[in-house]
Specification:
The protein has 15 helices and four strands. It is mainly α. It is elongated. 17% of the residues are buried.
């Protein structure tokens, strides 16, 4: 059930208090389907669901034995579920005992009647003034007056003909567009069926050449991506410091993407590699880029800019990774038949990992704990005496941070995971 609502892998073990808003909505829907109540009140239930999840929800609502009060802009869902429609407009409530199509029919009928009444009043007024001019009398006059009220003017007939022509043109254009979309979707549906057939083949998962080797390569690739994200983070610090007047990083040869210039044996190599092998959260750090705050043009402002540069570089990397993921999706649809599906799967998995690790690094570094970048924001509000105390304790705090990661992992996972999910959700909406 959770899989049908986009919860996969470790997601099913998450605590509810670290879930994002969309995840909580999906969990509530899944819980509702498992333990239904005789009355359901649903407000836009399909907002955070994909097509497959909407199908599961629709089937469950159709089979639901109780009463459902549904507010939704999803006409497909309303048409499938509703057997009574409540129309609220013009300070009036009207109940239609029928499905959504019956409601549309009655609504069109009322609109046509209203238009006919308005037209009838106009023609009747014209006929009355004519009768006054002619002063006709007798039953023949009454019949003529009655029939004149149903006669449409030349302008009305012309307007109706133009409206019919406009609707006909719009319908032809819509049908043409629909044919084009269906033609474009045909190869995608064909490729989807091929992938489903391939994934259903048990031999695909039993072949050691397709499982063990990619698994090792994936681990090494994830390790390399962690190092690259950390290196870019450190270079961003040095680059912004250089632009703000401090040449220390440049003179030390640290404004380079060569990882050898930034590697810390434990923080950049051993720690992330051990965490990746153990399946834990990917984390690491490089040798801090040296900078002398005395060189900065505006020390209070520039220290904050230098500190924010690292996390900002990680968010930028995550954004570029999301663009790459969207490009891979387009390529797989356009050229899927010529590409190896396993290669696409592993490449896409690595891109997703790259996005997640950069978001996690940005959130982690923005925690207000020395010597993390977020703690530098406190410097703006400290006097000179307290700033000196801050600089004195900063080198020793990294040991405490690493200790907390190993002995209190839940503290970091709940905070970093919750904030990271919010950022990842925003990236998904933007891209």
């Amino acid at each position: 059930m959770l899989g049908a609502f986009l919860f996969h892998g470790d997601d099913v073990e998450k605590r509810v208090n670290v879930l994002s808003g969309g995840e909580r909505a999906r969990l509530a829907l899944a819980k509702m389907l498992v333990s239904p109540d005789p009355l359901l009140l649903l407000d836009e239930p399909t907002n955070h669901l994909d097509i497959d999840s909407v199908d599961v929800l629709e089937k469950a609502l159709v089979d639901f034995p109780g009463t459902i009060i549904l507010i939704s802009h999803d006409e497909h869902l309303v048409r499938a579920v509703a057997n009574k429609v409540v129309d609220v407009r013009d300070h009036k409530v009207t109940v239609y005992d029928g499905d959504y199509d019956y409601f549309l029919f009655k609504l069109a009928e009322l609109q046509a009647a209203a238009q006919g009444e308005t037209s009838s009043k106009t023609v009747s007024s014209y006929g009355t003034s004519g009768a006054r001019a002619v002063k006709s009398s007798g039953p023949e006059a009454g019949q003529a007056a009655g029939s004149s009220r149903n006669v449409k003017t030349k302008e009305q007939r012309r307007a109706e003909a133009e409206e019919r022509n406009r609707r006909s043109r719009a319908l032809r254009e819509t049908k043409k567009r629909l044919d084009e979309v269906e033609a474009a979707l045909t190869p995608a549906h064909k490729r989807y069926d091929e992938l489903m057939t391939l994934m259903a083949d048990e031999t695909l998962y039993n072949d050691p050449h397709l499982t063990s080797v990619p698994s090792l390569l994936t681990t090494l690739a994830e390790f390399a991506l962690v190092i690259f994200a950390i290196v870019v983070h450190e270079v961003a610090h040095g680059f912004v410091a250089y632009k703000c007047g401090d040449p220390t990083a440049k003179m030390s040869g640290r404004l380079t993407l060569n990882p050898l210039a930034h590697i810390d044996l434990f923080g950049t190599v051993l720690l992330p590699f051990m965490l990746v092998l153990m399946g834990g959260p990917s984390f690491g750090y490089a040798k801090p880029v040296p900078y002398n705050p005395n060189y900065l043009k505006d020390r209070r402002r520039d220290e904050i800019l230098v500190a924010l540069a690292g996390p900002a570089s990680n968010i930028l990397q995550a954004f570029l990774g999301a663009l790459l993921l969207r490009l891979l999706s387009a390529v797989s649809i356009a050229f899927g038949t010529a590409l190896n599906p396993l290669v696409l799967y592993y490449v896409s998995s690595l891109v997703i990992f790259y996005i997640q690790i950069n978001v996690s690094l940005a959130v982690f570094n923005m925690l207000p704990i020395p010597p993390l970048d977020g703690s530098k924001l406190l410097l703006y509000f400290l006097g000179e005496k307290n700033r000196q105390k801050f600089y004195a304790i900063e080198p020793f705090c990294m040991i405490a941070v690493v200790g907390l990661m190993f002995f209190a992992p839940g503290f970091f996972s709940s905070i970093i995971g919750g904030i990271s999910n919010v950022i990842l959700s925003l990236l998904a909406r933007i891209i």
